[in-house]
Amino acid sequence: MAKRGGFPGGMPGNMNNLMKQAQKMQKQMEENQKELEEKEFTAAAGGGAVEVTVTGKREVKRVKLSEEVVDPDDIEMLEDLIVAATNEAMRQAEEAAASVMSKLTGGLGGLGGFGF
User: How far is Cα 93 from Cα 55, in angstroms, rounded to an integer?
Assistant: First the structure.
């Protein structure tokens, strides 16, 4: 009588290894996410007249303005510089997050290495 359940050819051992690898990857992802959230990314606009710093959580932490950029007759330029610096700092944070994920999943290929 044939065995019921299980997988022929030692599949349960492979499944255990796969689960261990998944748990290890999850732990690495959590550690890397925490490190990323603690990092800061600073970008400047207007030749350094405006600097914006964001965290890895994508929260604006600091805005620094040079005195010469504060012109009451040209508020619109200052607003544009703040937006430009903020967007660049956010882009840097996003790029760092993508880089971390790429390092973790780079060896898997496709969808987790399943070739779908």
Answer: 7
Confirm if 37 and 57 have CB atoms less than 8 A apart: yes
pLDDT digits (tens, 9 = 90+) for 23-65: 988 888 888 889 888 999 999 999 999 999 999 999 999 999 9
Q: What is the DSSP string of 43-112?
A: EEETTTTEEEEEETT--EEEEEE-GGG--TT-HHHHHHHHHHHHHHHHHHHHHHHHHHHHHHHTTT-TTT
Q: In whole angstroms, what is the distance from residue 104 CA to residue 93 CA?
A: 17
Query: 82 versus 114: which is more confidently predicted?
Result: 82
C-beta of residue 60 within 8 angstroms of C-beta of residue 20: no
